[in-house]
Amino acid sequence: MLEGQEVYQEWRQAVQNKVPAPAWNATLSAIKFVDYGQNILSIGVPSQVQSNQINNRHLPLLEQELRTIVGPQGSIRITIHDSFDSQVTMAPPATPTTPVVTFTPATPKVGRGQSLDPRMTFETFVIGGSNRMAKAAAESAAERPGREYNPLFIYGKSGLGKTHLLHAIGNYVQRHWPEKEVLYVTTETFLNDFIRSVREQSQIALHERYRSVDVLLIDDIQFMIPRGEGFHENVFHTFNTLHGAGKQIVLTSDQSPRDMDKLQERLRSRLLQGLIVEVGQPDLETRIAILQMKAERENVVIPNDVIEYIANRVRDSIRELEGSITMLRAHSQLAEEKITLEFAKSHLGGLGRDQMVLKPQHIIDTVAGHFGYSALELRGPRRIRPLTHARHIAMYLVREMLPQSSYPVIAKEFGDRNHTSIISAVEKIKGEMVSDRELSQVIIGLTNEITNSID
Description:
The chain has 19 helices and nine strands. It is α/β, with parallel strands linked by helices. Keywords: ATP-binding, Cytoplasm, DNA replication, DNA-binding, Lipid-binding, Nucleotide-binding.
């Protein structure tokens, strides 16, 4: 008679041989052995999302393969296994004498940059064939900061999870090494700090801020390209100082450094010396997993046919995938109706359309007209309360309806504001929509008006 582990290994291999590679990579590869007895194979998965996926899409095949091995009474039991730390098993540290790190309650040292989002962790990052290598590299850099893949350069189109990985690295380091200082900034913030230091002749303070940290995380470095030689020089020396001190550098961009021809050559060369990984468009299995996880986080029941409808319509933006769940939840609550496929089709009619058709100008014009202002006023500096509220709604809608637009890009549409004001406005409107039914109806009405006007 086969022992439990032997049954599991034979069954696992049989399943891997039967399912398509994307399904295996996105969902099934994370399965672990828990127990076997009385023809019942207990397996563990990291989250309820993956448990739901397996139950809904793969269970008949899994049990069929088990019965081929143990007989017709074989069955599968799925549990949420709390021993999972991540979905990718990383290699052990290169230096065997490194002490084991255990969590000790302490106040993490956070650099004087932007706050890390505690929701963006490795555990909440859905992996698939398009991002597996990027996630594994990010985990490795987080587990051994400064010793693996330094600098780590993650590139890909907007809305595919690059920023999530940056936050996940920062959150992991803060959780496991509270004494290490982590600094997360966008390139715009870095540039503004540089300009201020030149104007105020405070370069020493700038160097102290950026060159004394243990982990430096910089988002959207493609915005460095058009900047002057002085800024490129400062960035180069900052990276050199950190790299020489064994500090971790992680960067994101919408293009590979190989394509950054206008970047200072030695800065570009420094970037090319590290590990460069791409985050690609998620495959169908991954898109489904992302939608299921978002639905679970939003505590909303989305039928499988609706999940598949959305996943087939939206192929190239995780942000748009997640936004569709938020929009469905709002529509469902306001209409007091269950979410069905017909309901989804009627309220997500513009989903997955060619986003090049819709421009920020069109959204701003529509919102301005609705509230009785001009587009110029929405873009301007005046801060009377009704105008500011309308401006925040316009910012929110540009972000939601044009998910490929980054915060710095949106900031330029609104009079070259600081991108942090866009982030604040978007989060403010999101928060208000939870409890303000009237605001939610206004947002939905504007969304429908904008969508219908470009049909």
